[in-house]
Structures are given as C-alpha cells and as structure tokens.
Automatic annotation (TrEMBL):
Keyword Transferase appears in the UniProt entry: yes
Name listed for the protein in its UniProt record: Trans-aconitate methyltransferase
GO biological process terms, semicolon-separated: methylation
Superkingdom of the organism of origin: Bacteria
Length: 207
C-alpha cells in the first residue's frame, strides 16, 4: 500500500537539476515591465521560494537589490554561488527560511514563482497579509497560484498540505490592489510527480 503524497515529500534537489539552465519565468519578465524603473532605482525585490535562483539572478543583473528566500539550503547555496560567480553578490541577501515564518522586507517588487501553492491554506493566508504589508505603495506583486482543477487538488493524485484556489478566491486576494494581469492556464504536462493536469494562475498586481 502506498502512502498519500504530501507537499513535504517533494524532491527539490532533483527539481533544480532537472530545470538547470532554464530561462527566467515569463511572469517575472511581465512584472518587471510594470516596475517604474527610473524613479525607483535601485529598486528592491523579494523572491519567495527562489529555487535555483534564475529569477533572482535576472533581477540582480537588472540592478535590483534582491532578497532571495527558500526553505531548502541547496537552493539558497545555488543562488548565492551563482551571484558570486557573476560578481553580483553585493546586491543579494539570500536566506534559508520557511515561508510560514518569513517576514518579507519592504520591496518594490515581490515575486513568488510556483512556490506559494506548496503552503497549506492557513499558512498561505497568514503569509499573504505579510506579503501585502511588504509592498511599497506602487509596488508590484507577481505570483503563481494553483487552481481547483489541478490534478494535485483532488482524487488519487491529491497532494496534501497544498493550497488550491477558485478564480473568485484569487480575485478576492487581490482586492485593494490594481490587477495588471490575471491569466489562467490549463494544460496537461510533466511534473516532479509524473504527468498531470495543471491549473495555474499567473497574477500581477500593483499596490
Ligand atoms: C516549484 S519550486 C519553484 C522554484 C522557483 N521559484 C522556480 O520558479 O523555479 C518551489 C520552491 O518552493 C520552495 N518551498 C516550498 N515550500 C516552502 C516553504 N514552506 N518555505 C520556503 N520555501 C518553500 C521549494 O524549496 C522550492 O525551491
């Protein structure tokens, strides 16, 4: 008998190896276009659940001061090593922290690519308040969330400990912010747990 899947049993080292050499996520590139560069330089950014650090590196190269956070020490070592190698480490603060406890510093851009859904609903709701408080007025928020039609949300393929949202719930989370982009993507594709149906929101908003 196999035990049910849980968010805490993810093999993130394997994920970083599998995605090595990837391009920065389109969510980041779209979000950066909304950060008013000239009056905010040097702008500050936070990358929550930074993984291999590809987005943090891209932000450092663009002149941002970046705080990169992940629970996996392998991830934080990767981003720090990559920044040092490229002579960008003076702009980086990298920390091994659990998103359940992190207090994000104030920032002009808060990014979280495919990381927030790995928190449970209570932890994510608490973090969400801290995320909103961290954004400077005019600051930009760019996050992925997973939808209720995702394979990991139900049935034999369910992964416990994660959070999935209906569209109206995503819209409610953005109340008080100006929504710049709210895209919903559904497709069948690979994952670290095998092929699955993805239901993902790509959200960009301004405080
Ligand atoms: C799918 S990866 C995404 C990494 C990167 N942002 C990207 O776009 O490739 C999810 C990341 O979230 C991190 N993560 C998951 N749960 C976490 C938690 N509770 N606290 C901190 N990081 C967490 C994992 O260690 C992993 O690096």
């Amino acid at each position: 008998m196999t035990s049910a899947a849980h968010t805490d049993d993810a093999d993130w080292d394997a994920y970083y190896r599998r995605t090595a050499g990837r391009e920065p996520r389109p969510l980041l590139l779209d979000a950066m276009a909304h950060v008013p560069a000239k009056d905010l330089r040097p702008a500050s950014a936070i990358d929550l659940g930074c993984g291999d650090g590809t987005e943090s590196l891209h932000l450092l190269r663009a002149g941002f001061h970046v705080t990169a956070v992940d629970r996996e020490s392998a991830a934080v070592e990767l981003v720090a090593t990559r920044a040092r190698r490229d002579g960008l480490d003076s702009g980086l603060t990298a920390a091994v922290e659990d998103l359940e406890a992190v207090e994000p510093p104030r920032a002009d851009l808060l990014l979280s690519c495919m990381s927030l859904p790995f928190l449970g609903p209570t932890a994510l709701a608490t973090l969400w308040e801290r995320i909103l408080a961290a954004l400077h007025p005019g600051g930009v928020l760019a996050v992925n969330l997973l939808g209720d039609r995702d394979s990991w949300a139900h049935g034999d393929t369910a992964v416990a400990g994660m959070t999935f949202h209906r569209r109206n719930e995503v819209e409610a989370m953005m109340s008080g912010l100006g929504i710049l982009q709210l895209e919903e993507h559904e497709f069948d594709g690979p994952s670290g747990r095998g092929p699955k149906h993805w239901h993902r929101y790509d959200v960009i908003a301004r405080r």
